[in-house]
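Researcher: Next sequence.
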Amino acid sequence: MTRITLIGAPVDCGKLRPGCLMGPDAYRVAGLATVLGQLGHEVEDIGNLAPATGCGRDMPGPAHLVRPAEVAAWTEALAHAARRSLGLPIFMGGDHALALGSVSGMAARARDEGRPFFVLWLDAHADFHTPLTTESGNLHGTPVAYVTGQPGFDGFPPLVAPVEMHRLAMIGLRSVDPGERDRLSRTPATLYDMRHVDEAGIARPLREFLARVAAEEDPMLHVSLDVDFLDPSIAPAVGTTVPGGATFREAHLLMELLSESGLVTSLDLVELNPALDERGRTARLMVDLTASLMGKRIFDRPTRSFP
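Model: Next structure:
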């Protein structure tokens, strides 16, 4: 049994298109707490966080940035909640800007506990822009740069424990801007795009990364799962759909392997936009994937049809 804390993060300021504000409640309606409880876990839903007050005012940076003060305020609130969290926190988003806070806070918690900290980024995008390099101004494309200590985040909360690049792996990449690609190629981060997945399968790259995580003493592993990691044919409720994503079985296999590793200590569920969903289909899939991560197996799944 695992103690799980559900933390609502209705972050909807990391991009222009609204809708992720409703994400946390969509996970609740889809029965996330009930499903995890049925697996034998102790589950507490602490409700939705609110952004910190008095943070991020008079933000420096380019004028085209989308609501940077709000993103900074959410970063402070989420980092504080993550650092103080108990058991295995699941951050129910909310757009991917929430990871500026969830990941930096979990890295700080790992440092407090004297444990090595790793991040697995499951996303079509690298999210390695900074406020100085993003052309769109959308800060949901910046969390990896922020948590790894890249320059350009003046006015954001200072990092307590930057994530080391050699402890970062990305799987599912298929929409990476040239500047991000060039900067990432100069780092020791582990990058698996969908061509690599097509050629080697999804299990092999994951197992390679998990072996490195397990080689360290008492590690912590944060998984950040973006809806657009999945193919839009099975997960349409995201504002940044990119064809060619993970299939239903690839995604479940990945989660089952993570579960069997016993290494995952925190999870983001991000970029769900219920306004774009088909009768809750994407929300239910994300709940099912979380269940796989927390111990549910294929033999446990009753047959059901999707609308």
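Model: The CA atoms of residues 232 and 241 lie 6 Å apart. The beta strands are 3-9, 42-48, 88-93, 117-122, 168-173, 190-193, 220-226, 264-270.
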